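Hi there, hope your week has been kind to you so far. Would you mind checking whether the tokens look sensible for this chain? I owe you a coffee for this, so here goes:
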Amino acid sequence: NVAKQAKAGAAPFGGQQPLHNHHYHHQEEEEEVVILKVDGSRLPKISSAGCGGYLSSASQDWICGFVQKLMFTPTLTSDETEREAILRGLLWVKEKEKKKVIAYTDNEGVENLVNSGRRCKDPLNLIHGIRDLLNSDEWEASLRLISGVENAVADRLAHKAHSQISYDLEEIKDPPQNCLMHLK
């Protein structure tokens, strides 16, 4: 019991607890913001679609990435692959139990549609799913726009998804060689 009190920061045997201890403990509990950058990719000439992205710290240090092959149909649009990338990326980060995430896409139309709250034609319910995730009480999440140049790593990961055999999400521990020059 004394050990439990000591671990909790309480002073054993009625001693006084230093004031700075409580403040320090509070700072430890603060969840760091993580950055998610995602991209979708559609190659109709080879009937292939995929998405990819990666998670970094607020200081842009690589944490991990993902690639996922998507089911291709002739009617699948570039916007839909981007929506899939955002949705799957957010779900992936949520599974990691992160509490603060800023997601980035280089597709202005999709970013605008998600953040505007407007009703739209969304047969796959991707926009609805993205909005539900962003508005979840379980975390703080937002979607923002970045340039294609700033999204080069996610773009390369999305292209890597075309070579996947499985449709399962594959997590990538280390950045692929072709991404290194684009990381901080």
Observations:
- The longest helix spans residues 78-95.
- The chain has a mean pLDDT of 85.
- The radius of gyration is 20 Å.
